[in-house]
Amino acid sequence: MKKGLDRRKFLKIGGLVTAGAAMEYGLPLLPVLKSYAASESAGLSGPSWGMVIDVTKCPDDCTECVDACRKENNVAFYDDPNIDVHWIRKARIRRKHGNSKTITAPLLCNHCDNPPCALVCPVEATYRRKDGIVIVDAHRCIGCRYCLVACPYDMRMFNFKENDELYNEKYPRRMHGVSESCNFCSHRLDKGNLEPACVEACRKANHGAMVFGDLNDPSSEISQLVANTMVRALREDLGTKPKVFYIGL
Questions:
Q1: Confidence bin at 12 (pLDDT 50/70/90)
Q2: 157/102: higher pLDDT
Q3: The pLDDT of residue 87 is above 90
């Protein structure tokens, strides 16, 4: 569903960014876009893809999901933290309050129902598909990087260089000068393979830490987990309605 902001809304958002109101994770943008996000939620039907990650089953030193994602999608890696792109990455998470322990967990695009990255895009390059996947049209992206500022999860990446090394010749070369992020391996889903590369790699490694499926199907494994298990999404308080959930955080 490609719907952009009208000129008045875009100028208002642009003013906030220019004035420095989006100082931390672009959070002040959310109240401005609340009513617009609600209207965007209407009309989506069919499957609603989501993921549950059980961090208690995810070994600290395992990078199977990261490696599989990079090879499947030709995600650029130059061994330079200033320009490396990560559609999924392992991170160490610890709550700010109390004596909570540090947890290692995979982080990726949360494919929010109210995605700030899509709502601030001035050219509709970032949009939400009918199945809820938040995706980037690289041919429309003008490289303004508003979406990077708006993403509260720091999982929007900018491709500073064209990736010369192709791991997967069936997938497009990563273009430089555009934003990108995890798309749940939408090309695989569209061809009937109902499992992103990261989930497949985790399953083949016998960890079983990642479950993917249709949140609109009450009989699916993921729906059962969300309904009957203590799951958490990151920064639920922001109202972005993430569709990546965690067990064990």
A1: very low
A2: 157
A3: yes
What does the buried/exposed string (b/e) look like for 153-188 if buried means 16 or more CB atoms within 10 Å of the residue's CB? bebbbbbeeebeeeeeeebeebbeebbbbbbbbbeb
- Mean pLDDT of the 80-87 span: 91
Domains in the chain (CATH in brackets) are 7-42+49-247 (3.30.70.20)
103-108 and 88-93 as β-strands: parallel, antiparallel, unpaired? antiparallel
List all residues 6 or more positions away from 171 whose beta carbon is below 8 Å from its beta carbon.
Answer: 72, 73, 74, 187
Length of the chain: 249
pLDDT reported for residue 7:
44
3-state SS of the chain?
A: CCCCCCHHHHHHHHHHHHCCCCCCCCCCHHHHHHHHHHHHHCCCCCCCEEEEEEHHHCCCCCCHHHHHHHHHHCCCCCCCCCCCCCCEEEEEECCCCCCCCCEEEEEECCCCCCCHHHHCCCCCCEEECCCCCEEECCCCCCCCCHHHHHCCCCCCEEECCCCCCCCCCCCCCCCCCEEECCCCCHHHHHCCCCCCHHHHHHHHCCCCCEEEEECCCCCCHHHHHHHHCCEECCCHHHCCCCCEEEECC
